[in-house]
Structure formats: structure tokens, C-alpha cells
Amino acid sequence: MTEATPRIATFPVKRERAFDPPDLLRRWQEEAPIRRMTYADGHEGWVVTGYAAARAILADPRFSTRPELLHSPIPQRNLRLQNMNVPPGFFIRMDPPDHTRYRKLLTGQFTVRRMKLLEPRVEEIANARLDEMERQGPPAELVSAFALPIPSLVICELLGVPYDDRAKFQRDSAVMLNLDSTLDEVTAAMADLLTYLHNLVMRKTADPEDDLLSGLIAGGELTDRELAGIALLLLVAGHETTANMLGLGTFALLSNPPQMAALREDPTLIDNAVEELMRYLSIVHLGPIRAALEDVEIDGHLIRAGESVTLAIAAANRDPERFGGGDMLDVSRSAHGHLAFGHGVHQCLGQQLARTEMRIAYAALLRRLPGLRLAVPPGEVPMRSNMAIYGVHRLPVAW
Amino acid sequence: MKIKADTDKCVGAGMCALSLPEVFDQSEEDGTVVVLDPEPPEGLATGVRRAVNLCPSGALSVEE
Question: Is Protease found in the keyword set (chain A) (predicted)?
Fold first, then answer.
């Protein structure tokens, strides 16, 4: 088997066009929405590019998300999965019932209604960033001036993590999400961040404040190490994802003047636009990956126990069988049912927070900067092809 | 139309409360589904079916 081991990634993450899934995924989708794929370590698994099959597998409890059972088509990533020690509380990498126990302690904090209460504060944060951009004047780099600070500030305030420590956690999470990071680099970054958060938990235990972490500590159901693991997950997931949707989404709107104009003309389209941008851009562009816990038949294919399945969300969200004309960005389309937040029991815990942040941030950006435009040719915008979360590294803009 | 909710299955994603707040809410305590109107008027049937279909955990079902 060793001879057949591919040394390079067998799953494409480089997008030929900034907003479209890699062409190879679309070709696979046309040929067979579920097909065999050889993984980085030679494992013979599957790749799913069809919407219906991807959705079915995500909802199926016979598939696991535990890293020790998973193979990855990306060599560095594969090594990391197989050697990952899941920190206590890091429930995205757990199956029920462990996953259920942790998630249920948190879901009350992320309800639609709770997020509604956060709106004025998110609005304030977004406007403060725009005030600062206007004060400094154009040009500006939108990721560092706007897209990253908004979700970073929001998740820090919500969790109770000092925003002044952002240089540290933004650096560590970037290492964790870089597909090229080595096992040692990722292990070190994760350990570093866990130590930082563990210290924070101890400080908050002694001196509680009005935030999510203090609330969890007061609940008394979690150990310090579990609390640090939960904080790690929420902190990393809470700022990288929304930040990249804001950066990439703005780039997509700027590259599509009729859609930008439609949204400016009718701001009530914003809810739709957020869902459509998520569907169209699908920033989780590698995986998720699952492993069958038993033999499962999907669409006439027998997936054997132990086999890995990579769910190509970016392709599934463009599946013509589910989203007609799906290669077009259309902010008036009803994109509900897209898989950008996942599906099944692991569907994004913070999705209502992300929606709140995106609606408010995009709306404020368009309202406050009517002349917003790219400050470089589109081809010069550096894309995050090497990251687990796709987006733009930088977005130079003027107005 | 009668709505059934299984709060053990519910993962508190909030898709139902987001798409049809007239009928669905979430518990303050653990975010699981609270059905405000288990037998909603016919006019809401399409919205209910959509919410049921959007539920990521399969916690919702309807009896017609």
C-alpha cells in the first residue's frame, strides 16, 4: 500500500476563480455525486459533492467526527488528525453522548432571542470600526480594519476573553487553521492557547465577571480543563469564520455590481443576502470529514465501517439539483437549507451569532461607505487557499 | 396539522425559531425547541414544513 501513498493532496483546495469551488470538484459532481477517493495515507475512502448525499451523511449518527477514526486527503492534515489529542470540552471532535453533554450546556447562550439582545452592541462595534476607517481616510485594508475586529470583539466580550490579548489568540488560531502547519506547530499553538485559557478560567473562578465563561464556571458542571477546551473551540470558531465571510463576502459583492446595487437599493434583502453569500462562498472548503461507524448504504454505494468520507460543502452548495442557477450570486434567492453551517447534531452552535454579526456588519458597511470599491485589481487580492477556512488574507479598499 | 418536538434530539441550532418565530421558540435554559403553537393554522403549514425540514437534528415532525 505504501507505494500507492499519494504525497500530495488528493482533494483540491485551490480555487481557480476566487468565488467558485475548485473545478475538479464540479467535475466530480457531474460524474458522480459520491465517489471513491484515495486519502493522503493511501486510505481508500469517499468524497461527496452532491447536496442530498452530503446532507444525509451529516445528519446520520452512523458517521463519526472523532479524529482518531478519520483520514484526510491533505497530507499535513492527515498526520494531525491521527495524532490529535482532543482536549476535554473540545466537543466539535466528539460524538454523542459526549458531544451532547457539552453542547447542551451552551445552546441556551446562543438562541435566536439571546442574539437579538446583542444587536445594539454589535451595531455599536461595527459603527466604531467604520468611524475609525473614516477618520483615517481611504485606502484601508478591510480585513484588519473591519472584518476581523468585529467578530473578535464580539466573541471576546461574550466569552469574557480580554480583547487586548488578541495578537496571541489570533496568531495561534491562524496556525491551527493553516493546512500547511506541521503537527508540531499545531500541537504547540493549541497547547499555548489552552494554557492561556486555563489561566483565564482560574482568574475568573477567583473573580467572576458577567460573561459566558464565568456563567459556565458558576454552573459547576465542568472541570477547569473542560472549560479551557470549550473556550478554545468557541474563541477560534467565533472569529475566524465570520471574519472570513465578511472579507470574502464584501469582495464578492464588489465583484458583482448588480448584486451590490440590488442590496443597496433594498436593504430588507440583507437576511437573504447573508444566507446566499454563505451558500455561494462556502468558506469551509475542506470537508467536513466523517468516518462510518458501521456499513452504511448511501445512494446505492456501500460505505464500509471505518471508511472516511469527505463532504465537499462548496460543491454541494452549488449542486444544480438543489439550487438552480447556483453558480450565480443572487441576493434575492431563498438559499435556506444550504450546508455552510453544516447539518446534523454538529450544525454550527454559533450560527445565530454569526448571522447577527453579518447582517449588521454588511448593512453598516454598505450604508456608511456608498462609494466602497476595491483599491487593487481583483487578481491581486490574496486568497486563503491554504487555510481550513477560505477567504481573503487582505482586502484593500477605497471609497 | 400537529407538531411534535423531541427535545432530547434537539441541538438548539435555532433554525425553527429563526424561520417561524410565530410557532417556534427556544428554551432560555438550554436552547431546545419550545413549540408555541402545536396546532398552527393552515395558513402557516408551508412555513412549518420548511422549519421541520430545516431542523438539523430531526427533532421536529408533523402529523397531518
Answer: no
